[in-house]
Amino acid sequence: MIVALPAVMPTYNRLPVAFTHGRGAWLWDRDGNRYLDALSGVAVNGLGHAHPKITAALSDQIARLIHASNLYVIPEQDELAELLVDISGMSQVFFANSGSEAVECAIKVARLYGHKQGNECPHIVVMEGAFHGRTLASLTATGNRAYQRGFEPLVDGFVRVPFGDLPAIERAAADHPNIAAVLLEIVQGEGGIRLCSAAYLRSLRALCDHHGWLLLYDEAQTGVGRTGEYFGFQHTGVRPDVMALAKGLASGLPMGACLVAGPAEGLFGPGNHGSTFGGNPLACIASLATFEVLRDEGLLRNAARQGDRILNSLTTWLAGTPGVVEIRGQGLMIGIELHRNCRELARTALSGGLLINVTADRVIRLLPPLIINDTEADEIVRRLVPLVEQFLSQTDDGEPMSSEADDRLCVRRATTS
C-alpha cells in the first residue's frame, strides 16, 4: 500500500483552523468564527491585523517597486537604517529576512571580531534554554537538544552556561581563553518567558568589557515595542555591541536586522556578508510604517500598560489556584508556568476563541498585539482563566486534583534596578 505524503513537509503540529482575514486583535476563520489573537503570529503582528497605515504603505510601494538588488542603492533601506540607529543608539545595520539570519550575522560579526583580535578559534558563550533559530549555527547556539537531535554534527565554537548565572560565565572564561563574545536573549521566549535581572546585565556588560568580549543580544522577540520600549535593553540602558532583530520588525513581512556598535562597528566590508532579499524596498517600507505607527499611536506606553493590566488580572484571578507555579513577564510578553505539561491548552483555547501557545512544555505564552485596548486585555484574561482552572482541577489521569496541592504563586516582573 502506497501512502501519499503531504505536499507541504509536516514540520509543524498545526491546529485545525485556517484564517481568512483579520482586523486589529481579531481573526476570522473559513467558517466565520472569530478569535481573539493573544499570540500575534508569535510576536510578528505587533500592530494587529490589517492596520490601515501598513496596508496603505504596502499598497503604494507594491505599485511602484517590490524588489531591487543590493548591488544598487536602496533609499528606503538607508532611511530605515538611519531610523534604527537613531532610536537604538547603535551604529550600523545589516538587513536580513528572519531572526535566524540576523543571529547568523551576529555570530559572524563575533567570529570576525575574534580573528581580528588574533583569536584563531573564537568561541561564543550561549545560554541554557535559549532559542536563536534553526540554521546550523543558530541551532547550535539554541539551548534545546530536542531541536538539535538528528542534525549533528553541530557547529563548533560555543560554550553553554546556565541563564542568569554570572559566576558560570566567569568559570567559562577561566576554562576557555578563546571566548570572543556572549550571546543571550533579554527575555527567553521559547525558553518559557524567563527574565534576567538588570543587575545581571550590568555585570555581564562589565565582564565583557573587562575581557574584551562582544556582548550580543538576540532581540528577535523582545524588540520593536514588545516589552514597552523600542528594544528590551532600553529598560536597563545596558547597550549591546551587536543586536539581532526580527519578528515584529516589518509587521508580517519577512525581515531581520543585525545592528552593531562600539568595537563591533566597521568590521564588515564588501564580500563579508550578503542577502538577496534582505532590506528590499517593500520590507523596508513596511518597517518604516511600523515605527511610525508605534510612535504616533503611543504603542510603547500601551504595551507597558496593557501588559501590567493582564499580569495584574492574572495574578488576582489565579492566586491560590493549585498548580500555578509562577506568572512572569515584561510588557506584552507574559508567561504562566504550570506544574505540568499543558500543551493541550493551546487547542482548548482555540475552541474557546482564543489564540495562545505553550512553550517549554508547561508555560502558557501570551504575546498580544501592541494595539490591544482595555476591553481586549480583560477579555484575554476572562477567556483564559477558566481554561487554566479547569485544566489544573484534573490530574494527568483525569482525576480531581488533591486539595493538598501547593497553592503558592510567585509573580515576577522585569525591573530596572
* Mean pLDDT over the full residue set: 94
Find the CATH superfamily of the largest domain: Type I PLP-dependent aspartate aminotransferase-like (Major domain)
CATH architecture of the largest domain: 3-Layer(aba) Sandwich
Helix percent reads 25-40%
Order of helices and strands: EEEHHHEHEHHEHEEEHEEEHHEEHEEEHE
Instruction: Please give the domain count.
Output: 2
Order of strands, widest sheet: 4-12-11-10-7-5-6
Number of helices: 12
CATH C-level of the largest domain: Alpha Beta
Task: Give the C-alpha Rg.
Answer: 22 Å
Low-confidence parts: 402-407
Name the structural class. alpha/beta
Number of beta-strand segments: 18
Report the end-to-end length measured between terminal Cα atoms.
64 Å
What this model shows, in words?
By secondary structure, the protein is of the alpha/beta class. It folds into 2 domains: 19-50 and 298-413, Aspartate Aminotransferase, domain 1 (Alpha-Beta Complex), CATH 3.90.1150.10; 52-296, Type I PLP-dependent aspartate aminotransferase-like (Major domain) (Aspartate Aminotransferase, domain 2), CATH 3.40.640.10. Helix content is 35%, strand content 18%. It has a 7-stranded mixed sheet with strand order 4-12-11-10-7-5-6, sandwiched between helices. Strands 16-17-14-13-18 form a 5-stranded mixed sheet. Strands 1-2-3-15 form a 4-stranded mixed sheet. The longest helix has 20 residues, at 299-318. The radius of gyration is 22 Å and the shape is globular. The N and C termini lie far apart (64 Å).
